[in-house]
Amino acid sequence: MMCFGCASAQDDDTLVKVPAPKPGKAVATFAAGCFWASQEAMSELKGVEQVIAGYSGGKVPNPTYEDVCTEATGHAEAVQVYYDPKVITYEELVTAFFYAHDPTTLNRQGPDEGTSYRSAIFYRTPEEKAIVQKVIKEVNASKHYKDPIVTQVSPFTAFYGGEAYHQGYYRVHQDRGYIRTVSVPKVMKMRKAVPQLLKPEFKK
């Protein structure tokens, strides 16, 4: 398990609160490796109003980053996406998710290895599960990836907000080597794959 984001003394390690979606809005939870890139990628999509970096898929309540780094809690680094379903659909979010990382590598994303870096979608309804399965079939059939998708598809149980210093990390730390060499290519990959789903300022 690589642990690139362990806090230093000056970092704010307060766990952020997780809000309920506003009336008329919806929420979705994804895991795509390091949440720094995932938070940025999903926030660039039209209709997405907020993205929180945190942890999902485990059995330990209120885990810290250091807890998750041990690989003992069962959690994956994840993002919770708050969006307007009148602007972007769940299916479009799922499609973007599959192009925002490599969903064909089991428990690994680039230099990051371990179950906390697994590719996962946490669905909330049978309808969402069916949509995920449909998109997986479509992406596999497209041969965009040479290997089949191995993303874990699991029912949503809980999402816990990560530390404050992880929120917006991608934009604040553009000078970091990890961001430049690992995170930026993932975000650029998604922009290239689904330009029609981007907010205007991220289209080229």
Automatic annotation (TrEMBL):
Keywords for this protein: Oxidoreductase
TM ranges: none
Entries under InterPro entries matching the protein: Met_Sox_Rdtase_MsrA_dom, Met_Sox_Rdtase_MsrA_sf
Keyword check for Oxidoreductase: yes
Catalytic activity: L-methionyl-[protein] + [thioredoxin]-disulfide + H2O = L-methionyl-(S)-S-oxide-[protein] + [thioredoxin]-dithiol; [thioredoxin]-disulfide + L-methionine + H2O = L-methionine (S)-S-oxide + [thioredoxin]-dithiol
UniProt-listed Enzyme Commission number(s): 1.8.4.11
Top enzyme class: oxidoreductase
Superkingdom of origin organism: Bacteria
Any one Gene Ontology molecular-function term assigned to this protein's record: L-methionine:thioredoxin-disulfide S-oxidoreductase activity
Pfam family, one: PMSR
Record-annotated Peptide methionine sulphoxide reductase MsrA domain positions: 28-178
Keyword Oxidoreductase: yes
Known function: Has an important function as a repair enzyme for proteins that have been inactivated by oxidation. Catalyzes the reversible oxidation-reduction of methionine sulfoxide in proteins to methionine.
Entry-linked HAMAP family: MsrA
Sequence similarity: Belongs to the MsrA Met sulfoxide reductase family.
NCBIfam families reported in the protein's UniProt record: msrA (TIGR00401)
Protein name as annotated: Peptide methionine sulfoxide reductase MsrA
Organism placement in taxonomy: Bacteria, Pseudomonadati, Bacteroidota, Sphingobacteriia, Sphingobacteriales
Designated gene of the protein: msrA
